[in-house]
Amino acid sequence: MELKVLILIYLTKRLEIKTKNETLYNNLLIYITKLILQTDKVEHNWKNLLSDSLDLDNSRTLYSQLREFPSRITTVNDLDDFYKDIFNLIQPMADGIYQDHQIDPFSLFGLFIRKAYSTKSNLTFEGSIDLLNAFQAFISTDTSVSQVGQYEHQLLSWSSSEVDEIIPRRVEAFNEFQTAFNKSDIHSGSDSLRKFFDYRPSSINSDTITGSGSHQHALLSLASFFISQGVIEEARRVLNESLTMSRISKDIETLNGCNRLLRQLDRKLACPDPHAKSLASDDITVMDELFDIRVAIGNGDKLSELMTRSTRALVRLDEASALDKVDASLQTWAAVNAAIWELAGIKSIRDIYQKLATHGDTWHTSAQLTTRINISNQYAQNGDYTRALQCLFDEKLLSEINLVEYATWTEGVWAVLRRRSQRMNQHWKGPASAASSEVGMIGRIDGLISQCIASDGNRDLALEHLLLAFKMADTRQYFPLKLRAFVELVGMETRYQYGIDVGDSDGMFERAIHSPDRAVRARACAIYAEKAIADDDMRMAGALLIKAEHIYEKLQDATRRCDCLYALAGVWDRCGDSAKRDMVVETLVAVEEECESKSPGAVNSVRDKVHDKVHDVVSSLIQQWGIVIALRA
């Protein structure tokens, strides 16, 4: 269990053992390193860990702290706070300098902490509960319940003799590096850091020690050292090499680290103006910058930072155009900006960039495909499935895309039909959605909101999902997602009276009711109708439910339309208007009968046959274009 290692690292740093007993400190470093690498192939339970701490520390300081530590982690919030504290150990201070109690983020300990924190951040609330229960079981039993992860399994091939030889050398090399760093000895520091990454057993390859590749990690650490010593040109050269290696190996974590250091170079050379020339060398092309912005969107960077980087890319694009060194087009840049303004929730500006990306003076296939998929998704979200498909079935686009882009295009087409089928409460006959091993930040926030709606029976779990989604969207300035989470929070507070402050100081209600996204607008009307019913304002509730029902009818979302009709019948009944109530009930019965006729068993339904025809026609077109593109390739 990685938690025991994190606790040892945390206590080693917080107790300032290095200043009190350097021998104990070095022994602890070796002991923790063996735990991280699982070199002794022994599963340590909590009892063994306490026993080992007595052997290492005669003063019993570490032992007493270890015994008391489990009492600090009794709830999920305690667990979250601990992971934040341990992550802060690898974060520099405001001036970019690391204190004595902190850890180099690219050392073995730093990489382990980053990996553990990343894994914890990706856990759902249920996953955090499982982790807490596993830890409590681990400290309360004599048998180990730890699980060796993939990272540790890669290192089980280390022999005992290699461990005894390699680990002390790596510790010594890193200590030499720290000494050189404190003395500002650039040459000795560079040599020591290279030695640290060069020491490795012969039984494993060079990609094992630091995850997806130690070479780019070593280069990134070296660049960080050069920047701290003011050797900017050498740092830039090393960073460019690390960027190239990271892209080849698809090491997103190191790629982001390189980009952060490039921005730090900007600050060090005093270029605060977002319109100032980017300090990336000519090896970093405009297309590279746009690719990095797309990665940053997926990783959840703040909207303001994304806009600043986009402005810099435009300046570079203009300069490159003047020198006839363009590797990207204005359409590519516009496609990226359309995605940024989509996150900002400003439809008018988003539409301008989408038009520029699809109707510019030049043609860029990648920009066309990306933008058209986004536009089709917007049409489908608002229930206009015909225009969504027309947007994708563009003959010029299909005559230009390659086989890789064709796979992306087909997933975009199926996504439109899949959304329509789900809303019409029909059995989906097409392929399942493409599984992705890397879910971007936008997908994670959207998933949390969807989980909240799906797990409405479990109120506490739904609330945890919602609060987390709202916080994540608010921090990153993703307004449409923040608006969706806010609307669901209003619904939770209306139903269960948690005491959540859902004040409307930012005019969120008006924005939700008039959102350009029909699904958000309908959901907001339905939820605020619930609130009006709770406040005994039946006139307002009736108006909102009628509006929501009409929108769901256009979206062809039969299930939610029935929910609105059912609530509306109850409202008119409470108002004593039996005529309106009966009319709504008749409509409700008709819609429910239509839903039943479109169930998987109702093969004689005329509407079901129409749906089959649409599915068959689209499937045939996809197959025909696939053959054409394959032959062309």
Number of strands: 0
Low-confidence stretches: 142-160, 201-213, 270-283, 600-611
Radius of gyration equals 29 Å
- The whole-number mean of residue pLDDT values reads 73
Rounded to the nearest angstrom, the distance between the terminal CA atoms is: 49 Å
Beta-strand portion reads under 5%
Q: Which structural class best describes the helix and strand composition?
A: mainly alpha
Give helix % range.
over 70%
What is the overall number of helices? Answer: 31
Taking the sheet with the most strands, its summary is: none
Shape: globular
What's this, in brief?
With 633 residues, the chain is mainly alpha-helical. The protein is built from 31 helices and no strands. Among the domains are: 1-156, no CATH class; 267-423, no CATH class; 475-597, Alpha Horseshoe (Serine Threonine Protein Phosphatase 5, Tetratricopeptide repeat), CATH 1.25.40.10.
Provide the fold topology.
Blueprint: H1 2-14, H2 17-20, H3 22-37, H4 46-56, H5 61-68, H6 76-88, H7 108-121, H8 125-139, H9 150-153, H10 160-183, H11 186-198, H12 214-228, H13 232-249, H14 252-268, H15 286-299, H16 303-322, H17 330-344, H18 347-358, H19 365-381, H20 385-392, H21 395-400, H22 403-423, H23 441-454, H24 459-475, H25 479-496, H26 508-513, H27 518-534, H28 538-555, H29 558-575, H30 578-597, H31 606-632
Helix pairs in contact: 1-3, 3-10, 4-5, 6-7, 10-11, 11-12, 12-13, 12-14, 13-14, 15-16, 15-17, 16-17, 17-18, 17-19, 19-20, 19-22, 20-22, 22-31, 23-24, 23-25, 24-25, 25-27, 27-28, 28-29, 29-30
